[in-house]
Amino acid sequence: MRQTVVMLLLLLVGCSPFRIVRNQADPAAQWSEYRTFAFVDTNRIAGAPGATYQIAVDMIKQAVASEMRERGFQPSTNNPDLLVNLGVVVQEKTQTRQTTIQEAPLYIGQRRYHWQSREVPVGTYEEGTINIHVVDAQRNALLWDAAVASVINRRSADPARIGEAVDRLFQKFPAPRP
Fold first, then answer.
1. What is the DSSP string of 68-102?
2. Rounded Cα distance, 165 and 167, in Å
3. CA–CA separation, 47 vs 17, rounded Å?
4. Among the four residues 13, 36, 47, 101, which has the most C-beta atoms within 10 Å?
5. Local confidence band at 12 (pLDDT 50, 70, 90 cut-offs)
6. Are 144 and 174 in contact (CB under 8 A)?
7. Among the listed residues 81, 60, 96, the one whose alpha carbon sits nearest the alpha carbon of residue 140
8. Cα separation values, 43 from 53, 57, 101, 142, Å
9. Do the beta carbons of residue 176 and residue 34 sit within 8 Å?
């Protein structure tokens, strides 16, 4: 019984809807030297982002701030040690599938006939990616560059779902928790 529960938990963890796209950290970073953080001003975006975009960015900021506080960093507006830059990208993707031999055209001719599987489009979907850059504010040096992606659906703008994506990403954060 106990083994069944452990296997089920492992299966659920392995089936996360979030995919870590990038996770690169500066190996020489001395995380214990940093105490405070602030977000880079995202109002400098060219053009005016829509209200939905700004709401999503605000939810991401709240989730990132929570993760940073859990790791002992305090928000600061006065000369912070770390700057956190957020980016959100939404791309339309094409879902494909491979053809099978049953879908091959009827045999016509006598020579050099061959069949080759190919990818055929079956639909489109949107994938959202959250990019996070943590920068040493004094040296202007990138310390952590990470991104998490997921298929976007109606529930994607839910604060709990955004929190889950940010949590998944921060599981790879290089600084140990205090």
1. HHHTT-EE-SSS-SEEEEEEEEEEEEEEEEE--GG
2. 5
3. 31
4. 36
5. very low
6. yes
7. 81
8. 12, 11, 53, 21
9. no
Three-state DSSP at 67 gives helix
| pLDDT(120) > 70 | yes
Indicate the pTM of the whole model: 0.73
Q: What is the DSSP secondary structure assignment for residue 111, as one 8-state letter? A: S
3-state secondary structure of 42: helix
Q: SS3 of 51, please?
A: helix
**DSSP category for residue 41:** -
CA distance 155 to 158: 5
Q: Give residue-wise pLDDT tens across range 65-99.
A: 999 999 999 999 899 999 999 988 888 878 778 77
Q: Residue-wise over 93-123: b if at least 16 C-beta within 10 A, else e?
A: eeeeeeeeeeeeeeeeeeeeeeeeeeeeeee
Angle between helices 159-170 and 51-70 (to 10 degrees): 50
